[in-house]
Amino acid sequence: PSPNNTDPFRKPVASIVSSPSPDDIDWSRYAYTQYVTNLEYLCNSVMLFETLHRLGSKADRLMMYPATMLPDLASVEGRLLLQAQNEYNVKLKPIEVLSRSKFESTWADSYTKLLAFNQTQYSRVLSLDSDSVVLQHMDELFHLPSSPVAMPRAYWLENQLSSQLLLIQPSVEEFARIKTAIEEVENGEFDMEIVNKLYGKNCLILPHRPYDILTGEFRGKGRHENYLGNSYEVWDPEKIYREAKFLHFSDWPMPKPWLYADEDIKNKTAPTCDKIDDEGDDCRARNLWLGFYSDFKERRKNVCGVMEGNELESRSNDARPRSPHEYIPELV
């Protein structure tokens, strides 16, 4: 569609500038946030916080988890909560899960993510979806110009912003708006619809490159112009991977990486190698993509003690319906 003066996608993208000197920053004012609704996502969140800890991120780490989970050694949930707290310096905050049970259960609890708007003990929080991998810390985002919300474009969709990564300035007033929006939500509207409705025309836009790339991008053919942001650059999967900071798993019908996937669906979903004249095959994208999944499983086992086939990996391939925001790449 032709842009017009009310089109939020004509607004300038945030310029990511160098952070102030670390010695001048009170990092306790900032936090990466995770929300947990069940055991599967608890493990994902612990993995994400382990990565931030390993990468040397200086901001606080806050986990919002169901008050029904008790941080003790009597259960898997309790052990993981204590592990996050003791090994990765995560602050634990029990909460009541926000859910609209009349809607599709796969995303019915996603409103809980929006409790980040109520964490007013912080000046800014960075909410990250846990079905993702942090490749580099993003501490520099906390020092962007003031805005109630900053988020990247959902570059794979038409005129949508992505809620996979949300930079939020918590406040009583903004959380009140969020609560009202949740109460008035219609079927098929979840966290992404809410933040687009409230902030789509009035937010700071983060560059999706390098702050929000989908695993499905590595399956696509063609020039990848939507992600690259131009028509002249040649797609180089290794270069893109090296510069990326946040990788989100989106490969429908491939299950999320903690769920079992049989070889047939894996082979059908995995990227194919590209022919390079007489030089052979270029399998870089395929190797990277396969590595995303194998590395996630290996880290899950190492961080959470999760072995394939136990209660965290018992759901079948067809347990996950297609999200309306799923990325379906062009494969030709």
UniProtKB/TrEMBL annotation:
InterPro entries with a match to the protein in the record: GNT1/Glycosyltrans_8, Nucleotide-diphossugar_trans
Record-level Gene Ontology MF annotations: transferase activity
Keyword annotations: Transferase
Renumbered residue ranges of the record's region Disordered: 312-332
PANTHER family per UniProt: GLYCOGENIN SUBFAMILY MEMBER
Protein name as catalogued: Glucose N-acetyltransferase 1
Naturally occurring in which organism (per UniProt): Lachnellula cervina
